[in-house]
Amino acid sequence: MIRTLIKIISLMVPFVTVLLALLIYFSLPDVSYLKSHNPKTTSFIEMRKQQAKKTGKKIRIRQRWVRFSRIPKRFKQAVRITEDASFYRHKGVDFDELKESIRKDFESGSFKRGGSTITQQLAKNLYLSSEKSVIRKIKEYLIAKRLEAALSKNRIFHIYLNVIEFGRGVFGVQAAARYYFGRNVWALSLEQMIRLAAIIPRPLRTSPKKNSRWLLWKSRWILRKMKKYNYISVQEYEQVLPAFAR
Predict the structure, then answer these.
(1) How far apart are CA 93 and CA 144, in angstroms?
(2) Is the pLDDT of residue 112 over 60?
């Protein structure tokens, strides 16, 4: 009886897997409209609104769209360094980073390490949630592939920079620049650009204006990488480095 049951289950697993994959695939959003239209809201923005409503707290959403050309080249470089250095080389998923992520999660027995590219992060921000699960990761992967097929790399990066979270109710680089430093993103100093790029992995726990140990470490790391890749000169590196000293 038990052997028969095991055999039935083993035969059903492939069928159920295929069925689940089809259900996930056909539930994915159509991303083609993003070629010429900016999203009016995102899953993360709506999620933060619902969280605030449940806790009885008011939340003001700050978001200002800015043209890709108005975002400084060095800010884009700083973001890619910390979030996805191979963005312009991969097709939505960095398999080397993904394998490293899986290995680290397996060793720690948790599901913490991201391993997500900028495209995957955009998929999550636009359509998914912060939930850490295998199903969400599968959806993230499939939506990322759709984004890469439908949009140019610059368009993906443009939307990403305008919708990612930089703090409670703060979304996009222009809103972040205005909120934290009182200036437009194209007027930010190199130090301010690095500070904003540094908080992207943990926007609700870190402020670019507070010199926490983690922020200073992350900022120094980004600054060193920018020098290594010749995005900044040695002189610029030496001028900014003291701002991130402990």
Answers:
(1) 8
(2) no
